[in-house]
Structures are given as structure tokens and as C-alpha cells.
């Protein structure tokens, strides 16, 4: 796995400005957040993108994803606590996996990649100064390598989307209190899904009288043990009244 960090001298462009939203039928914030991913899609011709922000406690929250595969990839790493997205944040270096079948990966992650049809994966840290505040994950459905030019472009785009991604995360956090608790029908509604995980973590913390970090670890461990997603378990807690006191 390698890290690249060099600037481009050509006319690189960042995500569209906040006011540029030609689709009035969709939520303005969602349209802008999809635009963050679109730059990677258009410039690198990859299959999908996911962008996440990391809070001060090291917890990652997705702010944009191009499709259900990208969203599920991020969710799987959240459950396992391992993978290229996790490593890019932890090491502050780009992670390059040209062929997941020939790379050394967490066996559970490799199995999920196989099920999702992910054959190549790339992760680029989002940084502000010396701090890593997020990660951009790119995947392809066929094995492929990134050229030096591709790595420079991806690193540049990761820098370009950092501030818009942080702003998106702050907007979603500000809207948490307005969440009505309705079920989410589409896995692409990632910020809404992640809210359910955070809400369930808080409820488990209160149930067991433990820290949020410990509650999150309990939620993740139970999801892995039961071979269900964290979102599914979180919905059981939030909407169906499942108590972890009976599972402790």
C-alpha cells in the first residue's frame, strides 16, 4: 500500500460551488454532496465513491456515496474496524489495492468485497493541516491500477473535497434533532442511516451505563456475532425497543 501527495499544475477543478444545483427536484444538500463524489467519478472513471468524515473520537460518518455498494463498503468497515478506509485514516496515507483477490485483507472484508463485486479499492485521507478529518474511498468492479497521474488527481480531489465534506457533516449533525425516526428505504441515504447508529449507541450507553465508545463497541460486536449489519441492529434498538441489558 502506498501514499502519494503531489500537486498538479494543470487546471484542476474542485466540486461545484454551493449555489450550482440544477436539479430542483432533489434536496439541495443531497445534490451538493453527490457533487463531491461526481468529481472522482468523472476524472478517474471508477465505479463508485464514498466520502466519510471522522470525529474527534475517531468515529467515522458517511456524508456521501454514489451507490449502495459504496455505502455498504463503508458500513462493513465500520462494523469490522478494519479495511483500506480505516487504514487511510489511521496511517494518514493513501491505500491502493489494485486487486482485492490477490491482496492481504481481513478475511471478512475480503468476503464482503467478493459479495459486493468490488475488485479494486483505493482510499485517500482527507486532511486539514496535520489532522486527518475523513477519507475518500474509491472502488472499481474490475481489477485496475492507478497511474502516477491518477494518484495525483485522486490526492488533489481529496484535498478539494475536504472542506465541503466537513460542511456537509456539520449540516447533517445540525439536522439530527429534526429526524423523525421514520424507516429509511434506500441504503444510499447514508447520513440518515448513520444517525440511527449514533442514536442506538446513545441508547445502549444509557441502558448499560457505559461510555459511548464502549456502547459503540458492543453494538459492533453484536452485529458481527449475529451476522447482521450495524444499521439493522441499530433499528432494532431505536424502533423496536431491543435492550442490550438482556444481551449483556
What does this structure look like?
This protein has 248 residues and is α+β, with helices and mostly antiparallel strands. It folds into two domains: 28-174, GAF domain (Beta-Lactamase); 189-246, Arc Repressor Mutant, subunit A (Orthogonal Bundle), CATH 1.10.10. The chain is 48% helix and 14% strand. It has eight helices and five strands; from the N terminus they run H-E-E-H-H-E-H-E-E-H-H-H-H. The chain has helices spanning 28-44, 68-80, 84-91, 107-116, 148-174, 190-208, 212-226, 230-240; strands at residues 48-54, 60-65, 95-97, 120-128, 131-140. The protein has a five-stranded antiparallel β-sheet with strand order 2-1-5-4-3. A hairpin with a 5-residue loop joins strand 1 (48-54) and strand 2 (60-65). The radius of gyration is 18 Å and the shape is globular. The termini are far apart. The model is unreliable at 1-33 and 177-192 (pLDDT under 50).
Summed up, the domain count is 2
> What's the architecture of the largest domain, going by CATH?
2-Layer Sandwich
Radius of gyration: 18 Å
What is the CA-CA span between the terminal residues?
A: 39 Å
Q: What is the name of the CATH superfamily of the largest domain?
A: GAF domain
How are helices and strands ordered from N to C? HEEHHEHEEHHHH
Looking at the structure, what is the overall shape? Answer: globular
Secondary structure class reads: alpha+beta
By CATH reckoning, the class of the largest domain would read Alpha Beta
Poorly predicted residue ranges: 1-33, 177-192
Helicity, as a percent range: 40-55%
The average pLDDT value, as a whole number, equals 76
List the total number of helices. Answer: 8
> How much of the residues is beta strand, in percent?
5-15%
Number of strands: 5
Largest sheet: spatial strand order: 2-1-5-4-3
The CATH topology of the largest domain is given as Beta-Lactamase
Largest sheet: 5 strands, antiparallel
Amino acid at each position: 500500500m502506498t501514499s502519494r501527495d503531489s500537486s498538479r499544475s494543470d487546471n484542476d477543478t474542485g466540486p461545484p460551488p454551493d449555489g450550482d444545483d440544477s436539479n430542483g427536484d432533489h434536496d439541495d444538500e443531497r445534490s451538493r454532496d453527490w457533487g463531491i463524489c461526481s468529481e472522482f467519478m468523472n476524472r478517474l472513471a471508477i465505479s463508485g465513491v464514498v466520502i466519510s468524515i471522522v470525529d474527534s473520537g475517531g468515529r467515522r460518518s458517511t456524508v456521501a456515496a454514489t451507490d449502495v455498494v459504496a455505502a455498504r463498503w463503508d458500513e462493513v468497515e465500520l462494523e469490522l474496524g478494519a479495511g483500506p478506509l480505516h487504514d487511510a485514516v489511521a496511517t494518514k496515507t493513501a491505500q491502493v489495492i489494485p486487486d482485492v483477490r490477490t491482496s492481504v485483507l481481513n478475511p471478512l472484508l475480503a468476503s464482503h468485497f467478493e459479495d459486493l463485486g468490488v475488485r479494486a479499492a483505493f482510499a485517500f485521507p482527507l486532511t486539514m493541516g496535520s489532522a486527518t478529518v475523513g477519507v475518500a474511498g474509491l472502488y472499481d468492479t474490475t481489477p485496475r491500477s492507478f497511474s502516477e497521474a491518477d494518484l495525483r488527481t485522486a490526492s488533489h480531489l481529496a484535498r478539494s473535497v475536504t472542506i465541503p465534506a466537513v460542511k456537509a457533516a456539520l449540516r447533517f449533525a445540525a439536522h439530527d434533532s429534526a429526524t423523525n425516526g421514520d424507516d429509511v428505504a434506500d441504503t444510499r441515504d447514508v447520513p440518515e442511516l448513520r444517525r440511527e447508529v449514533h442514536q442506538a449507541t446513545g441508547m445502549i450507553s444509557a441502558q448499560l451505563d457505559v461510555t459511548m465508545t464502549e456502547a459503540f463497541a458492543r453494538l459492533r460486536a453484536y452485529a458481527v456475532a449475529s451476522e447482521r449489519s450495524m444499521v439493522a441492529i441499530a433499528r432494532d434498538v431505536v424502533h423496536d425497543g431491543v435492550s442490550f441489558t438482556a444481551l449483556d
